[in-house]
Here is the input.
Amino acid sequence: MSHWEDTLIGTSRSFLQVKSKIPLLSRSRSTVLISGETGTGKELFARAIHYSGERRGKPFVPVNCAALPDHLVENELFGHSKGAFTGALVEKHGLFHEADGGTLFLDEINSLNLPAQSKLLRVLQDQEFRPLGSTKSRAVDVKIVAATNTDLRYLVETRQFREDLFYRLNILSVELPPLRNRQEDIPQLARYFVKHAAEEFGKNVVQLSPDAIKKLVDYAWPGNVRELQGVLHRAIALAMGNVIGCAEIDLPDHEVPRLVGTAVPEMTVSEPGGFQAMKAKVIDEFERAYLSKLLSSHQGNVSQAARAAHKERRAFQRLLHKHGLDRREFSAA
Here is the structure.
């Protein structure tokens, strides 16, 4: 069994269906789009695609697009030549250059601004790029694997994502199931995380009690596998004995806000625009209600609200701007 197979844990039908596509995705030279909620393991799948294909001996370069400031995106991706701008004392290679021959993993690609999307499209079309300040283009051989935790079709419809780039990325696609839809995998995942956390902390923890496993299985896991891993690492770090019981599993009380003014009975099939328009409307109203509740719960503290939503702060601020929400309206008096 290869290393990537060791890290993709689960025997549920939905998980195995996705996992079975990895060999096909790795053999193709086409771009791959991985969608799924935050914490479902999109980077693990991207690495599996890379390391099970012919590019496995070449670099795998991951980049979180949400963490790149807008004014530095082009420089990070394509690099710059000496003297391209004030302070550019030496030439700098970008991420496309680093990934040449291998795979560039663009996580949270939905966070790229429109100018960066345009430049990325050009690279995908021509297989070449031009560093900032350079007069010459450079050929590049890079397999692009992109990931999104947002419905890109919705972003296309609302003009936040380029339609032509979406179709270029969506040649091959796969959607990872959330952990709540593969509950039968939770015990196996939990034992895996307990074993590795115990080794990391030098603990003699050997098992989870039946009531602890039940508590894990019954939880909704809004943060998915990443949240499960964090909860168990915390439990192991604080463990006093060799069995983790129900009391050691610290889970928050998550409440999903109800949609304000979007009760299903009020919807009609005669709404203009049909299904896609109604879906976009409901998502839009849900986002605003959810963001408002988060800001209210954290007294307008954007950093705390972003962490609670499992979002990068910059991406979270973009959502606030999109819905016209001002954190000051939710701050404590």
Notes: The first strand starts at residue 32 and ends at 35. Residues 180 and 304 are 24 Å apart (CA to CA).
